[in-house]
Amino acid sequence: MIAKTPRFALAAALALTLLGGCPPPDKPANAAADSTDTAKPILRLAGVEQIEIAVLESDPVQVRVVVYGWMSDSCTTIRNFEQIREGSLIRLKIITTRPADVMCAQMIKRFRNTYPVETTGLPPGTYTLDVSGKQEQFTLP
User: Fold this and answer.
1) Can you give the residue ranges of every domain in the chain?
2) Which of 42, 45, 54, 64 minimizes the C-alpha distance to 117?
3) What's the CA gap between 53 and 135, in Å, rounded?
4) Average of pLDDT values for 2-8?
5) Which pLDDT tens digit goes with each residue over 58-95?
6) CA 93 to chain centre
7) pTM to 2 decimal places
């Protein structure tokens, strides 16, 4: 009787392991996922290598920044950008998104995008633009 106990325990553990991965009886394995099952996307700041500022000769003056950067996997995309002004410092955040519930190839995906810099109402002077720690100055005439 003692010799049968380890085999019974092993068989029970194996059965629990195999059955643990099965869906509940009321939900087939190939059923579409409910809308409540979706995970929130992962938001991060894009990596930035370099920025270039262009002050356009127009009326009113327009400023653009060319951003050279990267994303860390094949599923990540640029979601949007935000601009915050603190005195003469203008911060630009480039926000990326990726699905939380998807396996993605880990690879550097480079980008080059141009973004407008909001200068409406700013007086003439020198300003510093910061994009993820990369800073450059520009002058509004």
Assistant:
1) 42-140
2) 64
3) 10
4) 54
5) 888 999 999 999 999 999 999 999 999 999 999 999 99
6) 11
7) 0.69
